[in-house]
Amino acid sequence: MPNRAAIRAEAERLRRLFEAAGAMPVETSVLQPAEVLLDLYGEDIRARAYVTSDALRGEQMLRPDFTVPVVQMHMEHGAEPARYTYSGAVFRRQEDDASRSNEYTQVGFEIFERAAPEASDAEVFALFYDILRPLGLRAATGDIGILMAAVDGLKTTDRRKAALRRHIWRPRRFRALLDRFSGRAPVPEARKALLAAADPMANAGAMIGLRGPDEIAARIRALREDEAAAPISGAEVGLIDAILAVRETSINALERLRDIAVDMPAILPAVDRLAARLDAMEARGIDVQTLDFEASYGRTQMEYYDGFVFGFSAEGRPDLPLVASGGRYDALTRHLGRGREIPAVGGVIRPGLVLGLEDGQ
């Protein structure tokens, strides 16, 4: 791997390119309040972040990425529209792969713009594409918003739709829930016994843990309501599966998704946004006829993406993580803005990987 001085110099070069695109350089603290990240991602974040504590500030995390603190900064103090760039170290646990670094440098570019979201998507992607063009990387795109729209359009309860949305970024859990809600998977025996009891709390014994009797009773009522709900139809499950199976060039993917929208009209606005984005990309010189699109792309990444997603990878180097990645995260601005929101899109590049690939490492 390149040395730290070389990585810092490359990070500075990349940041200057983003500044030339109108971005204002910003900095964020290395230590971030854990409460915010836990609220966003739940306890899962602990598996990939370094956590510490402070007597005055409470639980803290070493910065796992820049997007969350940059969004917080913008929602508290930023004018509109705005563009930011930043660089610095992020920290991620690598418990399943000791060969990957748990501390590395990111350089990022973010746009907060209400007027034309699809044009902003295209601008960010085209900027990254042009910067990384000399490396000959594979570019892949997707759109989490299409799957979200499909879930919202299901003929089932709001509780079930909320559960599916919550686990869109956990494909195995999402599939398990879809199978259970559609009747394809049997109800666990322990749950059957619980729901069959006239008074499930009668023999509960002493209360252990943080949940009180009222919370437990509410959860049992929710499980009974779910049991009484009609299953999601096989036709709708088939349409979800058809969306997840879309993996083609962007133009062909667009036509396939339009075909699916005939039977699932709930996804049509998201498909129209994809079409507008492709037009904007083409206007910026991107060959959308050959650009890869995968409907499920980005589902195992950080959970703030809720629309367009993209990544650049080195073909023939499956040992390497993505050289660059990004996407749209409108809902994150709403969450951190306490009711205020603004369309936002951005991405990050790893300068250490850029240098390594340039040197043939």
TrEMBL record:
PROSITE patterns: AA_TRNA_LIGASE_II. Residues 14-351 form the Aminoacyl-transfer RNA synthetases class-II family profile domain. Keywords: Glycosyltransferase, Transferase. Gene3D superfamilies: Bira Bifunctional Protein, Domain 2 (3.30.930.10). L-histidine binds at residues 65-67, 92, 106, 110, 299, 304-305. SUPFAM superfamilies: Class II aaRS and biotin synthetases (SSF55681). GO terms for cellular component: cytoplasm. GO terms for molecular function: glycosyltransferase activity; histidine-tRNA ligase activity. GO terms for biological process: histidyl-tRNA aminoacylation. It holds the Pfam family tRNA-synt_His. Homodimer. This is Histidine--tRNA ligase. It comes from Roseovarius gaetbuli. The lineage of its organism: Bacteria, Pseudomonadati, Pseudomonadota, Alphaproteobacteria, Rhodobacterales.
